[in-house]
Amino acid sequence: MMRSLWTAASGMIGQQFNIDTVSNNLSNVNTTGFKRNRADFEDLLYQTQRTAGTPATEQTLVPVGVQVGHGVNIAGTQKLFTQGSLQNTGNVGDLAIEGEGFFRVQQYDGSFAYSRDGSFQIDSTGQLVTNNGLRVVPEVIMPEGFIRETLNITQDGRITVNIPGVDDPLEVGQLELYRFVNPAGLNAIGENLFKETSASGGPIAGQPGFDGMGQTLHRFLETSNVSVVNEMVNMIVAQRAYEMNSRAIQTSDSMLGIATGLKR
């Protein structure tokens, strides 16, 4: 059986995966804090028919070898944590990170997850939570009777509110951000959340605006970093590569048809 059939088939499988990745990026173009994925590929094993440097005569060596590749394999998918655009929403619960860092939230099982999505809410107990009710860590609890529209979060993460009968704002909490040595190694679990892995390294805590952390922008949200134009170009490139691999299979099939049609 011709090797090119299987080689081209691996190329079609790889480009199908590439299209799946691009489709996921495009579907999340309006997802707050979403970071685009990139599919990375690697070539498969080579069959070496002659090794470079093999003696040709007693005094000469073969300058180049003879190797035949076996196609392509998916090496991994990488999250690209470039900064998304900042959108002024005017909503008192919205918060964006300009620069490096993640918010930390506590999941229902007690474990921690990390997010760039700062579309927060204030629940019935006065706690700062995500849209799914996960508590922001460190906990931020508003005092009873606070005036919602006076909520203010500074660029260094200090949270203040006003309460009736008191002139001066009351500081109710201090936000922390967390960064990772290798954020691309984080495990995306959906709901705009990431989990720490051994590849990402442990979280490094810090105050917004200090020690390499980004600053927090109140009443702003970070939009997705997906570029529709770039993703459409990537889709076209993947489609053409898929077509060329399918053409290689058709050509190999035609060559096999010629071979089987030979008569003595």
Q: What would your notes on this structure say?
A:
It is a single chain. The protein is of the alpha+beta class and 264 residues long. The chain is 22% helix and 31% strand. The protein has two helices and 20 strands. A hairpin with a 2-residue loop joins strand 16 (187-190) and strand 17.
Biggest sheet, in brief? 3 strands, antiparallel
Number of helices: 2
The total strand number stands at 20
Low-pLDDT parts are none
Distance between the termini: 21 Å
Percent of residues in helices comes to 10-25%
Work out the count of structural domains. Answer: 2
Strand order of the largest sheet: 8-7-11
Secondary-structure element string: HEEEEEEEEEEEEEEEEEEEEH
Structural class: alpha+beta
Could you say which overall geometry the principal axes of the C-alpha atoms support?
Answer: elongated
What is the residue-mean pLDDT, rounded to a whole number? 93
Cα Rg: 27 Å
Q: How large is the share of residues in beta strands?
A: 25-35%
Any descriptors?
264 residues; alpha+beta; 2 helices; 20 strands
In short:
With 264 residues, this protein is of the alpha+beta class. The chain has helices spanning 3-27, 228-260, and strands at 37-43, 46-50, 66-69, 72-79, 86-88, 95-98, 103-106, 112-115, 121-122, 128-129, 135-137, 147-153, 158-162, 170-174, 177-179, 187-190, 193-195, 204-206, 215-218, 220-222.
Write the layout of secondary structure elements.
Blueprint (H helix, E strand, L loop, with lengths): L2 H25 L9 E7 L2 E5 L15 E4 L2 E8 L6 E3 L6 E4 L4 E4 L5 E4 L5 E2 L5 E2 L5 E3 L9 E7 L4 E5 L7 E5 L2 E3 L7 E4 L2 E3 L8 E3 L8 E4 L1 E3 L5 H33 L4
Antiparallel strand pairs: 1-4, 2-3, 5-20, 6-19, 7-8, 7-11, 9-10, 12-13, 13-14, 15-18, 16-17
Helix pairs in contact: 1-2
